[in-house]
Amino acid sequence: MKHETIQPPAAPGEGLRLHTVTVKKVIWETDDTFTLQIDLGEMGETFSFLPGQFNMLYVFGLGEAAISISSDASQGGMLAHTIHRVGTVTTGLAQMKRGDVIGLRGPFGTAWPITAARGKDVCIVAGGIGLAPLRPVMYAMLRERTAFERIILLYGARSPLDLLYRVELEEWAKEHNVEVLVTVDRGDSSWKGYIGVVTSLFSYLKLDARATVGYVCGPETMMKYTIDEMERRGLAEDQIYLSMERNMKCAVGFCGHCQYGPEFICKDGPVFTLPRIRHLLDKKEL
Amino acid sequence: MYIIDSTELHNLMEELIKRGYLLIGPTVRSGAIVLESIRTVDDLPRGFGDEQEPSHYSLKRRNDAMLFGFVVGPVSWKKFLYPPRLTMFKATRAGKSFTIAPEGTDKNRKLAFIGVRPCEVSGILMQDQVFTGGKYVDRAYKAARDNAFIVAVNCTVTGGNCFCASMGTGPGATRGFDIALTEVLGGGKHYFVASAGTPRGEEVLGAVTQREATEPESRSALDAVARAAESLTKRMDIRELPQLLKDNFENPRWDDVAKRCLACTNCTMVCPTCFCSTVEDATDLTGMHAERSRRWDSCFTLDFTKVAGGNIRPSIRARYRQWLTHKLSNWMDQFGTLGCVGCGRCITWCPSGIDITAEVDAIRGNSVHA
Predict the structure, then answer these.
(1) Model confidence over B272-282: pLDDT tens digits?
(2) pLDDT of residue B23
(3) Domains A12-108 and A114-243 belong to one CATH topology
(4) Which of B110, B124, B44 is nearest to B76 (CA)?
(5) What is the pLDDT of residues B311-321, one digit of tens each?
(6) Does residue B370 register a pLDDT over 50?
(7) Across residues B335-361, what is the average pLDDT?
(8) Shortest Cα distance, chain A CAs vs residue B169, angstroms
(9) DSSP code of B214?
């Protein structure tokens, strides 16, 4: 296939070896979502990742969860994962304090092809926690801001209190010439921004269809409507990338849980080009 | 081709034991032929056959002394290469931290599989693709596999649920074995026609027999396998099957089979190619020691697809469709072959008697492109 996501080499230790790493800081982003900063210690010397990849994080005795990396890929030894507290393992991770040790395997999966977007406009669309795996993209692009033309971020959350990275969102807009448009499903008395689904933000934009790359991550329904909007505006389907989520136990293609039609989300994804999976998107209970 | 007389089969077993192999083979237990540790020819199910239909298995006495006069039982060789439960690591708390001690299989254990049916040899080759053929390699599997010596036994009898010929996996083995045997019984003679598939098979075979098969002896073996192929009653029409299933995601037959399927997971447990697993984490009462184990899982369980938003496949319809479509369509995209060997176990051990070949026929019959 002509347009592909980046397939990084296999994680060290053939992917199954668990490393112990130290929690440096827990930052609560919202009521139920936090960012776990990790010091990789010795592992940091060999660990590197690409934006879009994920790790398996292990809590002693509780188990593992697949969590995308939300930090800057150029900051070696330090990693961040932004985590929605929803199950046993993520609740365990939420209770971590500075100095606690967790297990880590990774990185796994495909990456957003940022190099392919150089010289173009980039339209990033994120829903909820879907912003987390896209934050490393933003960091990478802002490091060489001039290599890209327009950078647009459309971001939707349930409510103003559910917005992630609020300080950074403002910074990106004010200091880095990023067109940041934020919307919420339900506003509150303090909210003066947009209200509505994230796709409604497209009506405030004019996209140069021939020169725009789209990166999308969020709930599947949101991604489907986003793709519709992008294509309606003339974006070529092979310029649209999306990140998928499924249950994962092993992250290396052995456990079978993450199968999505013929794809293993853990190794063929999570980042896919739209043409590769578009025939699967409308299939219910696939 | 060489000849091993039935009275000399124990020599083959002895030679393997001498080389440090633990023998695993078919034996009768609890009314079924299962695969267990064996030591001598007397442990084999001499004079036993089996009767299989959808949702039915029973042993029967044969009126001869065939050592391999039966087909496949509820146990496949899978469990010896990919154990149903495997401790992956043990962890011990140390202050705020913990240490990790990897576990796994005994990497020095050498197993010799005696009596692997051709369909099951194919099953092993398919799992090789899954666990060792891609970007990541399952080291426990690879170690067990590298240490496994395969003595295949071609089928000269077939079962009511066998459809290996449709899948191109039997009744004769063409590759994937160290030694292949064909049992010939008749005219007062009882012998095995043997051939080696690998240098180590050659070496072991050379230590067991020097007698080359005569033309009539080789012919008898080939004829017996050919007769078995002709005796197969069950078939699966695999023409363009991967695409057919892709086109029939909404075929009404899925609703029909969903009414019969209990989602009991039997088919996935007996299947020689099903590879899905889950992990379990536990601590002891002190909270100081934790353990992670991997165990076989099944795409028929509800929680198999659990994500933060719920389960992806809540209906049995979707789970049966996933299982069948994975085997007969997606497997081709993933590993370059179909994922079914035609052993018929899923048919025999389904409490509802769901027959994968009948489901494929029904979908083909209702096909949106038929």
Answers:
(1) 999 999 999 99
(2) 98
(3) no
(4) B124
(5) 999 999 999 99
(6) no
(7) 98
(8) 23
(9) P
**C-alpha distances out from residue A89 to A18, B90, B281, Å:** 16, 18, 11
**Do the beta carbons of residue B146 and residue B128 sit within 8 Å?**
no
Residue of higher predicted confidence among B129 and B368 = B129
For A114-243, give the CATH class: alpha beta
Contact B125, B116 (CB under 8 A): no
Q: Does A88 touch chain B (CB under 8 A)?
A: no
Domain positions in chain B are 2-86+103-231, 241-278+296-366
Q: B334 to chain A nearest CA, in Å?
A: 6
Say which of B91, B138, B330 has its CB closest to residue A262: B330
A166 vs B308, residue with greater confidence: A166
Say yes or no for a CB contact (<8 Å) between A61 and B318: no
CATH for the stretch A12-108: 2.40.30.10
Q: How many other CB atoms are there within 10 angstroms of residue B175's CB atom?
A: 12
* In chain A, where the domains are located: 12-108, 114-243
Q: How far apart are CA B304 and CA B325, in angstroms?
A: 16
> Which residue in B186, B233, B189, B193 sits closest to B215, CA to CA?
B193
ipTM for the whole complex: 0.94
Does the pLDDT of residue A1 top 50, yes or no?
A: no
> How much is the pLDDT for B105?
77
Assign A75 to helix, strand or coil. coil
Cβ atoms of residues A158 and A184 within 8 Å: yes
Give the best residue of A101, A254, A255 to mutate against chain B (max B CB count within 10 A).
A254
- Following CA atoms A105, A111, A115, A121 in sequence, which dihedral angle do they give, to the nearest 10 degrees? -130
pLDDT digits 0-9 by tens, A231-285: 999 999 999 999 999 999 999 999 999 999 999 999 999 999 999 999 999 999 9
Whether residue B334 and residue A264 make contact (CB cut-off 8 A), yes or no, is yes
Query: From residue B317, how far is each of A248, A282, A285, B263, B354 by CA, in Å?
Result: 22, 17, 9, 10, 13
pLDDT of residue A77: 79
SS3 of A143-208: the string is HCHHHCCCEEEEEEECCHHHCCCHHHHHHHHHHCCEEEEEEECCCCCCCCCEECCHHHHHHHCCCC
With contacts defined as CB-CB under 8 Å, which chain B residues touch A246? 305, 307, 312
